[in-house]
Write a structure and sequence with these properties.
The structure is a single chain. The chain is of the alpha+beta class. The chain is built from 2 helices and 5 strands; from the N terminus they run αβββαββ. Strands 3-2-1-4-5 form a 5-stranded mixed β-sheet. Strand 4 and strand 5 form a beta hairpin. The protein is globular and about 35 Å long. The protein starts with a helix and ends in a 7-residue tail after the last strand.
């Protein structure tokens, strides 16, 4: 088993919560951010830092009940 798979996943989910753009990580909200774009940029940047530290990480955008993948640590060669 690789070290990465033994670490907990860090999923940064951008969501419009109560009319404000926030990032959800482990059921905790961070923000609010002025715009969706700022929240997306922050989620991706933070996910990249977690990925660089060895965590399986991803940034997602939640719209209604749908999730759009913005970045994941498996894609870091493409970033």
């Amino acid at each position: 088993m690789s070290e990465q798979s033994s670490l907990p996943a860090a999923r940064y989910i951008v969501i419009n919560h109560d009319g404000e753009w926030k990032i959800n990580l482990d059921n905790r909200y961070y923000g609010p951010f002025k715009t969706k774009e700022i929240a997306v940029d922050m989620a991706i940047d933070t996910a990249k830092k977690a990925g660089a530290a060895g965590y399986p990480a991803s940034a997602l955008l939640m719209t209604g009940t749908r999730f759009e993948s913005l970045w994941k640590s498996d894609d870091k060669a493409e970033s």
